[in-house]
Design goal:
By secondary structure, this protein is an alpha/beta fold. It contains 3 helices and 4 strands. The longest helix is centred in the first third of the chain and has 15 residues.
Length: 144
Amino acid sequence: MIGVTSGMAQHPPTPPALFDRALLHARQRRAQMQGAVSFLLDRVAEDMAERLAAVMREFHTPVDLWTPGEGLATLRPRLPSIEHIALDAAGAEKLPFAPESLDLAVSALALQFVNDLPGVLAQVRRALKPDGLLLAAMIGGDSL
């Protein structure tokens, strides 16, 4: 029997490394040494707090995905149990959550540095409960 190739890879390749995580962290540390300038992150956090205020429910398992520093401190009064996950300097983008284990995922100004955004969003979707909420903000392509 002659095999017919579909033209598709049998095993999808690993996504390319678009961002040098070590260089990104080095630049962020250098910027912090010059003094924190967090006006953009502060604005995003205020906007997220406003949007979250419109949601009339309690969140019992919230997580903050990779927001730099204490960027979402303004959400702590509403979400005292929020867990902060730091972006791995080695570049690992595997989330440590069981399926349907979260009811809220927030991320501010971090997802634009992800090498495999569709893959990370799929992981977030699996980790969210059926009525879970993802609230994220990232810099878009024409922003700068």
